């Protein structure tokens, strides 16, 4: 049956229902596009034959191939769109700089989309709060306190907080830091919130 | 990394599908027993049981839902759809008697969604099918909601195993 490869792409994404981004399946995409080209060509030939030789009996087959073309188109569009939804989520989970291993999963056009999305979001955030700007990617859950105790899970080097103090984030060191500064690092797995 | 910001396109409600929903695309891959009401020249290779160049009129085969929906025409010149077992009168009686008995994952796992999609094919049994789908969901809803709300430290896998995909989705939200 046609459109099996297209469905594989969908299954690939559906398997990762936690929002992780798998590697861009360029090969799979190309195979689906090839199948679409072949279907289209066969239909063109059949349509010409139907018109010139009055072979209306070919019409059901033309219709079937057309359904397959639409199906492939649907699968490809849904595949690309769902990936964009995951990539958009990355900006909110990881921040504006993506780790290299995540960037590697994206194709060139997706990277471009990400940087444009970042820009749009930044422009929007700057316009909030009467022109002063507001970082809405912080405090995704209502915070319970201003400062939190964190433990460093891996070496992250120097970290500057708002009053200019520089903290050295060494593995296993513990610090008492402003919540809003730590949020992103917590999400990235560098720091761990210590709850006493 | 728990992606709380990933919001996939949800499946459609009732007889509607959402074009971009991964769930709906997978649902529409399910196969239906179908009979061709006309010939499909040059497509014999799709039909594995016969070795012919064309699909002859009157051939019984299994086609995916998406293709069946695409080919179906009300005037009935193209394909006729048979009801899969689970939606026929025999099974409907079972569901009406006690909806909690059935293992919907084994019977589906898209029992409700596929059942709703079947309504597109103008079977005379449509009103009964629709009624059974609704009553089955209502009948099972209380148990699935109960077990999802009160599952603290309990192993609910035995219950979850027998749920249809729609029920599984609903219980995750609770």
User: Helix/strand-derived class of chain B?
Assistant: mainly alpha
How many structural domains does the protein architecture of chain B include? 2
Classify the helix fraction of chain A into a percent range. Answer: 55-70%
Q: Average pLDDT across residues of chain B?
A: 87
**Overall number of strands of chain B:** 3
Q: CA-to-CA gap between the ends of chain A?
A: 59 Å
Low-confidence stretches of chain B: none
Oligomeric state of the chains in view: heterodimer
Helix vs. strand class of chain A: mainly alpha
Number of helices of chain B: 8
Roughly what fraction of the amino acids of chain A lie in strands? 5-15%
Rounded radius of gyration of chain B (Å): 19 Å
Helix content of chain B: 40-55%
CATH topology of the largest domain in chain A: Methane Monooxygenase Hydroxylase, Chain G, domain 1
**In the CATH classification, which architecture of the largest domain in chain A applies?**
Up-down Bundle
- Strand order within the widest sheet of chain A? 4-1-5
CATH class of the largest domain in chain B: Mainly Alpha
Strand content of chain B: 5-15%
The CATH architecture of the largest domain in chain B comes to Up-down Bundle
Q: Count the beta strands of chain A.
A: 5
Characterization of the model:
The complex is a heterodimer of chains A (196) and B (174). Chain A is mostly helical and 196 residues long. Chain A has six helices and five strands; from the N terminus they run αααααββββαβ. Chain B folds into two domains: 29-82, no CATH class; 85-173, Methane Monooxygenase Hydroxylase, Chain G, domain 1 (Up-down Bundle). Chain B is 41% helix and 8% strand. Chain B contains eight helices and three strands, in the order H-E-E-H-E-H-H-H-H-H-H. The longest helix of chain B has 24 residues, at 126-149. The A-B interface holds A 1-3, 7, 10-11, 13-14, 17-20, 42, 46, 57-58, 60-61, 63-64, 66-68, 70-71, 74-75, 77-78, 81-82, 85-86, 88-89, 92-93, 140, 187, 189 and B 1-9, 19-23, 25-26, 29, 38-43, 46, 64, 66-67, 70-71, 78.
